[in-house]
Prior knowledge:
Oligomer: single chain
Order of helices and strands: HEEHEH
Strand content: 15-25%
Strand order of the largest sheet: 1-2-3
Radius of gyration: 18 Å
Amino acid sequence: MESFDRTDRVGDEIKRIVGTLIEREVKDPRVGFVTVTGVKVARDFSVATIYVTVGETEDLEETLAGLRAASGFIRKRLGETVKLRNTPELRFIYDSSVDRGFRMDALLKQLADERDVSS
């Protein structure tokens, strides 16, 4: 069994292309600083779930609305680049793992500071 199957390779390619398209070609003012953190592609390639984070100054809901509005354009451009029988439907989801990581880091720092104070 392959450890890196076709859906993973297609997901990585979609991640690269969609990230570039958002950065360079999406003109919606609601879409500011967006980072594509991952892509999960359905086994039948019908849907690609795209996980994104947004800049601190960006409005999350407005950004997601802008991405959803631009999904047809992004999908069309993706279909021109990636050779698949059918271009997957794009679903944009906020990736909260970065926030959880920051919170975990802050908690660990707080514990370390409390231990230093009590020593």
